[in-house]
Amino acid sequence: MINDHLKQALGQEYPIAKLFYAKGYSEGSQTFGIGKDEAKSRQLLQEVDKAGIADASALLGIQTIDSPQIAFAYLKKAADAGMAGAASLVGSMYYHGEGIGKNPAEAFKYFEKAAELKDPAGMESLADCYRTGVGTGVFQERAFNLYAELKDPSPRVMYILGSYYNEGISTAKDPKKAAELFEKAAEKGNVFAQAVLGIAHYEGSAPFEEKDFDKAYSYLTNALENEALGQVTEDIAAKVYECAARCVRFGRGGAVKSKEEADKLQEKADALSESASSKSFPFGSIGLATFKESVAACDISWASLKYEDILERVTFDYPKDYLDRVPEQAAVEQPKPVVEEKPQQVAPVSPAVVPPAAPKTPKAPKAAKSGRLAIIIEASPYCFAPTSVVSSRDNNTYWLKGSAIDLSASVGWLSDSGLFIGGGAGFESFSGGRMSVIQGFVDARYFMGGSSSGLFLGARGGVGMGSPEYGIGISAAGLLGYKIAFGGNMGLNIGLKAGINSFTDDNKTMGNVVGPFVGISF
User: Fold this and answer.
1) DSSP secondary structure string, 152-177?
2) Looking at 233-370, which runs of residues are DSSP E strands?
3) What are phi and psi of 286, to 5 degrees?
4) Which run of H or of E encompasses 383?
5) Which of 180, 346, 465, 496 has a C-alpha 20 to 30 A away from that of 242?
6) Other CB atoms closer than 10 Å to residue 121's CB: what's the count?
7) Quick one: pLDDT at residue 49?
């Protein structure tokens, strides 16, 4: 019997037996003849974790989820060993900054790993990344295909898919399909779907062609009573209040007619309209799943622990009849379990809950330092360059005004956080060729969107040689721009540059450069 073997294996310190006895102590098991004992369960899990079995690391991560730094260490260990659910949760922790600093690029990497292993939560989160550009570019077709592949989509995914069909984004418009998905999401309490259906039924807008005040008021009421209404963008929320106000004012859709109540609703609608910063895009304000939603969606639990699955990953170096031998013979031979080698980090040790063990609390692992080599090529074709020349002969100051051409290329290291440090060379020609400069410079920039689109700040400083008569000089410039990501490593940089060049020889020359620039990064 398998239970007899597990009992004997437990006495001989086999990790697989400890793992299943940990499950028995966690729930209480008549099969094993043991009662519920969470402390004993945790102790056994910690011992199995040290043996390198990812299931124990993942379960310890879930058990310590209220201590995010400890949970992160356990879950990352399980994720790096190939557990899909753990990889999805680690991605969520990187995205939300739970137990580790926020790192969209690392979040994307772990979501991608979980999706490759067909973890539903990982596939949903990876689709969210492609839809919103978190840690990557915006790829709506990839996002749509991943959402559509999910066999049991969550209410938020039903709403997002409904929006794709309703707007005809990355798929053909299908009002009927959109309505079905919105209705399913609304029934499961999705506030975005409730709001959209309420407005659409009231106005007779897509995905519907006719008004239906009864359905409109029902959905509008559900949305107003939904605790998550605050997640909806202000312009959509304002529309919900406005449509509900009209229903109450005129007694439409079964609403009790009340001018006083209607005025209150309209007043709320007006306040939201005034504070709304912009109109909503088709998906409302839906970002990635919250960390709480990610934990609820993960498949890491005692119920998912299957004996056969563990045996596929763990083997034992002993004869088949070993556990049936007499205890004296077993004690002499002392066989040891052999665990398949997997890439691991140093195993964290959770705080002990039962004496006599006194394990140390693991430190939160540092985020991996990673990045890539990047090249930036830019041009400033229309700079305004007023230049002052102080003559050494008569000590007078003369001003030259004209255009400038600035071409530059820099090579450096771009970290995942968006910090670029590098160096390069450039060519500048001022006032129709009256002064040309070849210079080398140090380039430092910070891309706030990381590998995605977003603002960036930068500074450059260098030393160059001017001609025909201005000699050696120094230059400095500040950069403010915006990067448009094209996917992969390619991006378009546009912005404004302001700088100064100072050269000395027979004359003292100061060149000021202010103007736009455009370039590419890859």
Assistant:
1) S--HHHHHHHHHHHHHTSSS---HHH
2) 314-316, 337-339
3) -70, 115
4) strand 371-384
5) 180
6) 27
7) 87
